[in-house]
Amino acid sequence: xxxxxxxxxxxxxxxxxxxxxxxxxxxxxxxxxxxxxxxxxxxxxxxxxxxxxxxxxxxxxxxxxxxxxxxxxxxxxxxxxxxxxxxxxxxxxxxxxxxxxxxxxxxxxxxxxxxxxxxxxxxxxxxxxxxxxxxxxxxxxxxxxxxxxxxxxxxxxxxxxxxxxxxxxxxxxxxxxxxxxxxxxxxxxxxxxxxxxxxxxxxxxxxxxxxxxxxxxxxxxxxxxxxxxxxxxxxxxxxxxxxxxxxxxxxxxxxxxxxxxxxxxxxxxxxxxxxxxxxxxxxxxxxxxxxxxxxxxxxxxxxxxx
Length: 306
Hints:
five-stranded antiparallel β-sheet, 3 domains, alpha+beta, Alpha-Beta Plaits, disordered C terminus
């Protein structure tokens, strides 16, 4: 079977087209796709590089601003007490009575409520972190750590101790996250309108972190004063280096020698002293009366002789 020259040319042309297509499909096209992907990655990397170069140029500014912000945060955190307890509300009410003459009839201290965390954690996240025990943290090991522990006995004990120390360090670092809490103190009062305004200003002038949440007052026709409640928010922050400091209540008089308030008789010694003083007084009065009688008798005897 002979193939004509024309058929050979057509066959060669077809083979060339097939080779070109196979080379383009399996060689050129994948390389072009990779080139496009690399170009896209280069574009993102170039943008990141520009950002890093800009940050590097302004390094001193960012370092100084970061240090300044940290100082401001530390100063802000230092103004919050470590905890708020019932005695804080009682001392606040006592000071308002002593300094303002504002009568506080009752003091109620509420439960500590979660407000916010510095790292953005929610109350549920903090509760889960606190509920997690040390053993659970120590047992949360990776496969590589488990493989290392499965070596010799001494090595296993050392690895377990290191894992426990790491868990303790993690827990201590988590506990250092500052968390803001709020405690509401309810003060029932009885006083004048001027006293109520002084009480509001007194709360505003306190050095502790507290705010006035609500004031409810009504006129008492029997006394002519105002009666009602004042709700004060006292804020505290845990996870800081500060510790709780008991409030200074000053000198408070307490106790009594007579719990019934009855009138007691004088002591025997005091009674004998009083009897002695009475006898001396009676003797002086008797001497004075005798002297006056003698003088009257002498005057009477002298009158007839004249």
